[in-house]
Design goal:
Layout lengths: L1 H24 L11 E7 L2 E6 L6 H10 L1 H4 L16 H16 L7 E4 L2 E12 L4 E8 L8 H16 L4 E7 L3 H9 L3 E12 L2 E11 H6 L11 E2 L1
Parallel strand pairs: 5-6
Antiparallel strand pairs: 1-2, 1-9, 2-3, 3-4, 4-5, 6-8, 7-8
């Protein structure tokens, strides 16, 4: 009798499993975000491009961020962790995986800057809002590649993609009031300062005022200088 009951038991178990797994079958697993590459553009003998971040960027990212700590940390979001603790390879992997998840949801566009094929910084569009067609720009560059027209090229590549391809109407960048180099780079990218926001962000361990810089699709269309980076030697 027990052997005769086994098939019925299996049928009942399979039926129960299928019943409870029905909701899971309706869940669609997001497709892998396709890799993106913009450029390269030649400037002053160097090739500059933007591309999707890779897990293998961890070592270069950590090395540059630790070396340039005194230049970056005063303007970076405050944390209870020390600078080295914030820049382990595990931290980079976590950041990459989270950014890929956010990118699949259409919330961010994570990119890294490449100069001559080597990792040289990050350039992210964050807080993307498809309804208002707006986003916020966050960028940092290896100090060893600044001053060569690199940021101007990054601005051209990013604005072209964000505005002409993604259809954004406005991209903003909050910059700490005493971060003159970043303000100069924003201006070089075609952005304009709109005003100051008091105590906007907690950076470098203090709540600081920030200037709001922005570029709109109309500004991008009318500013002919944005079409060609400012440099003595540009090659496409």
């Amino acid at each position: 009798m027990r052997s005769l009951d086994l098939p019925r038991t299996r049928v009942a178990v399979v039926a129960a499993v299928r019943f409870h797994l029905r909701p899971l079958r309706r869940i669609r697993v997001p497709r892998r975000t396709p890799a993106l590459r913009l450029g390269p553009i030649g400037v002053a003998g160097h090739q500059v491009a933007l591309r999707s971040p890779l897990l293998s960027d961890a070592t270069a990212w950590r090395e540059i961020r630790l070396r340039d700590q005194r230049l970056i940390e005063p303007y970076w979001v405050s944390s209870t962790l020390s600078w080295p603790e914030r820049h382990t390879e595990t931290m980079w992997v976590d950041e990459c995986l989270q950014s890929r998840k956010d990118a699949r949801a259409g919330l961010t566009l994570p990119l890294v800057v490449e100069v001559d094929g080597r990792f040289a910084g990050q350039c992210n569009l964050e807080r993307i809002d498809v309804r208002t067609k707006t986003a916020e720009l966050g960028i940092w560059l290896d100090a060893q590649v600044t001053g060569r027209g690199v940021c101007s090229v990054v601005g051209v590549l990013l604005a072209d993609y964000a505005i002409d391809t993604l259809g954004l109407r406005r991209v903003t960048a909050p910059i700490c009031v005493d971060n003159a180099p970043a303000a100069k780079r924003a201006q070089g990218m075609g952005m304009k300062r709109e005003g100051t926001i008091a105590a906007f962000l907690d950076v470098g361990g203090h709540r600081r005022d920030h200037d709001m810089w922005a570029i709109t699709s109309d500004m991008w269309a009318l500013t002919s200088t944005m079409r060609e980076p400012q440099s003595d030697d540009i090659q496409r």
